Please model this.
Amino acid sequence: MAKSNTVFPKTGIPWKELHKAMDDVRKGDSDWHGGRMAMSTYVVDDEVSRVSHEAYGMFLTENALYSGEMAKKRKVGFISLTLFQEEIIEMALEILNGPEGSGGQITTGGTESILLAVLGAREWARKHKPHIRTPRLLLPRTAHPAFNKAAHFYNLEVTRIPQGADCRADVAAMEAALTDDVIMMVGSAPCYPFGVIDPIAELAAVAAKRDIWFHVDACVGGYVAPFVRKLGYPVPEFDLGVPGVWSVSADLHKYGYAPKNISTVLLRDAGLKDYFTFRFEEWPYGSYSTPTIGGSRTGGSLAGAWTTMKYLGEEGYLKAAKTIMDTRQRLLGTLDRLGGFEVRGKPDIGLVNFGAQGFDIYAVADGMAAKGWAVARGRDPNGMHVALNPIHAKSIDSYVNDLSDVTGAVRKSGIRGKDEKAVYAG
Ligand SMILES: Cc1ncc(COP(=O)(O)O)c(C=O)c1O
Model:
């Protein structure tokens, strides 16, 4: 029997009514705008959002599938989107030290950037190391699950190596695990669970000895860590300027503050793009060639990112980075003052993972959730996690006050938290 028709309306509903329904339903969402959710949303302030959303709206119907050489040579499609893409990649390469001859591709997010880099590595190995029968990725355990997703899609093996005591990739252990079938090695800048940047230069040197594609996952750090370093913090080098780095994924919809969905995958040599570009010539409509996983892509996210980058400029990104680092200092200072908290590793930017000694961190997490904070929980070891961005400057006082109250109550009662499974997505 067919499903009864209760959701799809027989006649259209006026926009005013729909708008109200949407406003009502979002009341159940986490309060990211009030700074009560330190994950998943990356925002500078209302003014930057207004400008980038307006730019997004201007181009949201245009389709980036019809851009690039087609728009330039045949005058079909969108020269506007071609310019946005070229300039976004140029700006990205300037920020992330692309050498002469470097290039890149815009994607819909960190996962797609990683999917393309892994595909590139697989195809490169097929051509240059045809003896490899069981292509394998060699990762620190802290690398993002998107690498396993890529391996699942492309039928690759994966070896994950436990991180060191400082939460960074263990270079010696990774080198020891390097088998002849490895087609890609990876380091993160930073890894999401602990917010620390892996020893990229050392890992890249290990990969270079065997001519292995080395990818830096800077999806989180790509557009903030360079500015944090410029402020004077000791952020290690991790980008295309490091010898042995072949590709870098860096998300504009995270600390680039652009509206979703947009990321970049940058290549030390623009020619490497050929290894992940799909071409099909036998279709009655003509030749089809895409360097992305998807086909049609909105021009909105390109216009949104281009505008955000130009509107903020280096000055704006530096200011945002300073706000984040000052907010982080308020948090670290509070953890120190309250005592009993343990920050995992030495976080390089605004991602902080902290556990506790002598009381249960998940009880603190429950208490904070009861006070209306959207709490991210880490595991192995148990912890709480925040990904700070500029919007949290306005909520940090209230966060540390609540943290102080909740921690006091947890200490007094000795209560244990719900052993709620840490969930990152889904
Ligand atoms: C280090 C890292 N890499 C990749 C990704 C995947 O990014 P996306 O969710 O945009 O696909 C994330 C997402 O948080 C991440 O933290």
